[in-house]
Design brief:
Oligomer: single chain
Order of helices and strands: HHEEEHEEHEEEHHEEHEEHEEH
Organism: Albidiferax ferrireducens (strain ATCC BAA-621 / DSM 15236 / T118)
CATH architecture of the largest domain: 2-Layer Sandwich
Number of domains: 2
CATH class of the largest domain: Alpha Beta
Number of helices: 9
Helix content: 10-25%
Keywords: Lipoprotein, Signal
Protein name: NlpBDapX lipoprotein
Structural class: alpha+beta
Distance between the termini: 36 Å
Largest sheet: 8 strands, antiparallel
Pfam families: Lipoprotein_18
CATH topology of the largest domain: Alpha-D-Glucose-1,6-Bisphosphate, Chain A, domain 4
Strand content: 25-35%
Shape: globular
Length: about 350
């Protein structure tokens, strides 16, 4: 598949072309009209329709929109302006906004539509919003033909990449809201030496894309462009994490207290392909399952490959991820679906995925 041009049509388009170039922005998901998504590859349309955050039975026993008391946050790596401030640890960033979550839902929804996305998930009761798959048109190379023809043959060009963004809102102890944005990406690759067919497969999360959309959301909420860039550029305080073992059980050790560790683990789970079915913050437990990130059933997904899954391994894998803190140190461990410590190779791989993402 040729991602960039179909030369047989160029001669028909030259007479109609006007000289057009994209602006210098590195992000351009904007489509022809507000809320209209870009063309999605057929392989990805099924993913957009999945109700991946619907809790079985429809009950929400411990949703992020109904948090109880939380522990004191250590005020490190934080910069603020008015009622908005950004926190950062490693390559993770999130917003803390001194407004109730129900007052932010509509502005956040409008924000994603204004940036060229449709919403595939819009569940205020869970505090979860997820965009449809869309293409960053700013990545299309600006060669001579592209610059000459501009939008006349715009649909003939493709990056071979698609992105979606998950937004999670959680109430905090002060009555404000923590806002997390996580990125997931897919890339189209050849699956044969003849290069005659392609498949879609996951690509790594992009922390800089997450950061840019957090910055843009700050602007939407009233922070100026210049101020948002200054807040985003603020450095993070050191915070390390590592995979380890305690009594034979694989764990992740984080040099953070519970509040920050809980936030960071939740964002990591969002990034790395787990579906958080439920959470119990008071007990420090995420109830997760894995959903393959590609509709191409002939190819295992990211965690499917990680676990060595075969085509026959179709049943969802369910786990409990526990976050337990003592002072400024936190241990993250994996329990099986029944709540028993998991010492399997799968648990070790899950620990490694979380630890790698937290660096």
């Amino acid at each position: 598949m040729n991602h960039f041009s179909r030369l047989s049509l160029l001669s028909l388009s030259l007479a109609l072309a006007a000289c057009t170039v994209l602006d210098g922005d590195k992000i351009n998901y904007k489509s022809a009209s507000k809320g209209t998504s870009l063309e999605v590859p057929p392989d990805l349309t099924q993913l957009s329709r999945e109700t991946r955050y619907a809790v079985p039975g429809g009950a929400v026993s411990a949703s992020s929109f109904q948090l109880g008391q939380v522990t004191q946050t250590v005020p490190t790596a934080t910069t603020s302006l008015g009622d908005v401030h950004i926190e950062r640890s490693g390559n993770q960033r999130w917003l803390v906004i001194n407004r109730p979550a129900d007052k932010l839902w509509e502005p956040v929804r409008d924000f994603w539509q204004e940036n060229g996305f449709l919403l595939a998930i819009d569940q205020a009761n869970l505090g979860i919003m997820e965009t449809d798959w869309a293409e960053n048109r700013a990545k299309i190379p600006q060669d001579f033909i592209r610059n000459t023809l501009g939008k006349v043959i715009d649909s003939l060009y493709s990056t071979g990449e698609r992105d979606k963004f998950r937004t999670r809102l959680e109430r905090n102890a002060s009555g404000g809201t923590d806002v997390f944005i996580s990125h997931r990406g897919m890339i189209e690759v050849y699956n044969s030496s003849a290069k005659d067919t392609t498949v879609w497969q996951p690509r790594a999360a992009d922390p800089e894309l997450e950061a840019e959309f957090l910055r843009r959301l700050m602007v939407k909420l009233g922070v100026s462009q210049e101020q948002s860039k200054a807040l985003l550029a603020a450095g993070a305080s050191p915070s390390s994490s590592r995979a380890a073992a305690i009594n034979g059980q694989p764990v992740v050790q984080i040099d953070d207290g519970f509040d920050r560790a809980w936030r960071r683990v939740g964002l990591s789970l969002d990034r790395t392909g787990f579906t958080v079915e439920d959470r119990d913050r008071a007990q420090g437990v995420y109830f997760v399952r894995y959903v393959a990130p590609t509709a191409d059933k002939a190819e295992p997904g990211f965690l499917g490959k990680l676990f060595g899954a075969s085509k026959a391994d179709a049943a969802p894998l369910k786990y409990r991820i526990t976050v337990i803190s003592q002072g400024a140190s936190t241990t993250v461990s994996v329990l099986d679906a029944g709540g028993k410590p998991d010492t399997s190779a799968n648990a070790q791989r899950i620990v490694n995925v979380i630890a790698d993402d937290l660096k």
